[in-house]
Amino acid sequence: MNSGKRPIYLDYQATTPCDPRVVEKMLPWFTEKFGNPHSRNHLFGWEAEEGVELGRERVARLIGADPKEVIFTSGATESNNLAIKGVAQFYKDKRDHIVTVTTEHKCVLDTCRHLEQEGFRITYLPVKTNGLVDLAELDAAITDKTVVVSVMGVNNEIGVIQPLAEIGALCRKKGAFFHTDCAQAVGKIPLDVNAMNIDLMSISGHKIYGPKGIGALYVRRRPRIRLIPMINGGGQERGMRSGTLPVPLCVGLGEACAIAAKEMGAEAERLRGLRDRLLTGLQSKLSEVYLNGDLESRIPGNLNLSFAFVEGEGLMMGVKDLAVSSGSACTSASLEPSYVLRALGVEVEMAHTSLRLGLGRFTTEAEIDYAIDHIVAAVNHLRDLSPLWEMHQQGVDIKSIQWAEH
Amino acid sequence: MSYSDKVVDHYENPRNVGSFQKDEKNVGTGLVGAPACGDVMKLQIKVSAEGIIEDAKFKTFGCGSAIASSSLVTEWIKGKTLDEAAEIKNSQIACELALPPVKIHCSVLAEDAIKAAIADYRKNQNQ
Q1: What 3-state DSSP class applies to A397?
Q2: Rounded distance, CA A16 to CA A351, Å?
Q3: pLDDT (tens digit, 9 = 90+) per residue, A88-135?
Q4: Which entry of A144, A153, A198, A339 is 20 to 30 Å from B31 by CA?
Q5: Under 8 Å CB-to-CB from A172, ≥6 apart: which residues?
Q6: pTM for the full model?
Q7: Nearest-by-CA chain B residue for A379
């Protein structure tokens, strides 16, 4: 066992460590170059503004945008709130309909629920069993009353990549704005706001080896997208987001984007190798292991697996040398498993048996090999304990039993 | 969430794991919970002619607290009469394992499993 040491981190969709190169670039901006970037009267302000603008330029470059189209926020949750509420409220006299998808992040879904209470109509589109949006269904859902379509770039639980270019083309044709939550996509897959007809894009710092507490929102200027700000004040960020900018964080996000731009291709290649090694390793040593979500249209740093007949939370306890996350939400009072897996049509029984394994920049081959052995041992231990596994071995169909739901 | 030492101990070294032949006349089997809820417990008792539980086995699909609750009760019921075993309350299990409020249902399920195994044994005797 790995006792005494810290667990192996395999939860890169939850957050990523800040890249040491990012931290290094941030440090002078805390102490030496500490100025307020909005101070116009002296060197401290000017140099701070330069830092912010360099960061902004690097964020913009990664997504093919103009720096003037990027505004800094506190993170992707704020960006998602601002994008959806902001445009909905600005255009509400003309349009009152929003289209989104059932597998979106909670902060998009909850924002939509909030707008529903304000009188907006929301269409929550289902996904196919591979987790991807059906373009024909999306096409049918968009009407001349639709103000914005919000579809995430990459899903946080299952890592699947939505067909952004196709969705963007559809939105453009139908005259609806296209917002995409790209917290998990930026720096992982190539993105181009113009080629993909993206009007609004949410970006997170801490998912891309940048600092926590910062994100960005891309807001298209041509044609210009208007939005009502949520935070009022000194009119910073072109009036869309007031408040003094956190210069070290802006610099850090910019550096994280610059590194991603440079290393994305090689990193994806390396992660794909590790991901395949992990998947093959587990599936060759264990039976009844199922991948949730499409394998092809997926970022290489994510696996979401159901280990049939083994409950996810129990499994997490068994793999205590690994920091992973479970699709089972047995700790919540509702006993409801992941709504994302349920939206894929994964049965509740199977959704309870899932683990999310997130690989990233600092994951090593040795860690993957250790993880394989550790997971295999835990699954075998729990299957020996599992009455469902026993029934399965005896050829009993678990669905044929009358279970008393509790 | 962190687990108590006792939960971890039962999880890592579960007591009395296994199965008896279901159709033996002196065996009672309780199967409670549901896969869709994330918890299934199978508890079996082997009862002597004098009505004493002389052996117990379990298998559980569930979280660490569910596994620990069922492992614990197999230890507790051995040597007890059926009536004594039926008196075990979920609150005693929860207290012994220091279960947090969100895990109380695991102890409820373990209590239900004992009762179900006893009922099944009595049904077998009356056949």
Answers
A1: coil
A2: 25
A3: 999 999 999 999 999 999 999 999 999 999 999 999 999 999 999 999
A4: A339
A5: A178, A197
A6: 0.92
A7: B61
